[in-house]
Model the fold of this input.
Amino acid sequence: MTRRLIQLFLGLALYGLSIGFVIRSGLGGNPWDVFHQGLSARTEIGLGTIIIIVGAAVLLLWIPLRQRPGIGTISNVFMIGIWADIGLWLLPPAHSLPLAWAMLTAGIFLNGVAGGAYIGAGLGPGPRDGLMTGLVKRTGGSVRTIRTGIELVVLGSGWLLGGTVGIGTVIYAISIGPIVHRMLPLFTIADAQSAPASPAFTAECCAEPR
Done:
């Protein structure tokens, strides 16, 4: 259990810091962070605080879906937002295109490593992933369809609110799944009484572990 907790907390911290890299690149973030960015711009509330508020709101949607949060779920709501703010405080905006690309590349890679660590700890899905899996169970839809639908709605809403959509959004969408897929076998902690989940299925469900 100690290893699971350490891996969980380090994974969440790294995930939050990786958001700082991607946002500061100015080339576009993942759909949820485009949404967070748009809300932050409209409300003038800090990005990390918005991430926490949205995470808590999404968690409330678990109630009618009969999803049960774990310690990883609750930790996710608070820690990613806190560490995202730390990352944004530490990192200045990119002032050149080569630096922007370097920050984007580093951010996406670290995001994938963090996702593998957080998911592999096995202490509960993030609120956003739990929303997806809950809808899959309740509607009978496929993971791919439900996930794509959620992210299109979030991305469109974030863009309308003023979030940054760009080439980084496309690169993130293409690359994050394969990165998490490669990281999961390195970080997955199998239960003693059950076989570990298929890395391919887990990567598809939880490439963006929030």
Notes: Residues 2-206 form one domain. The chain has a mean pLDDT of 88. The longest helix spans residues 2-25. The chain has one domain: 2-206.
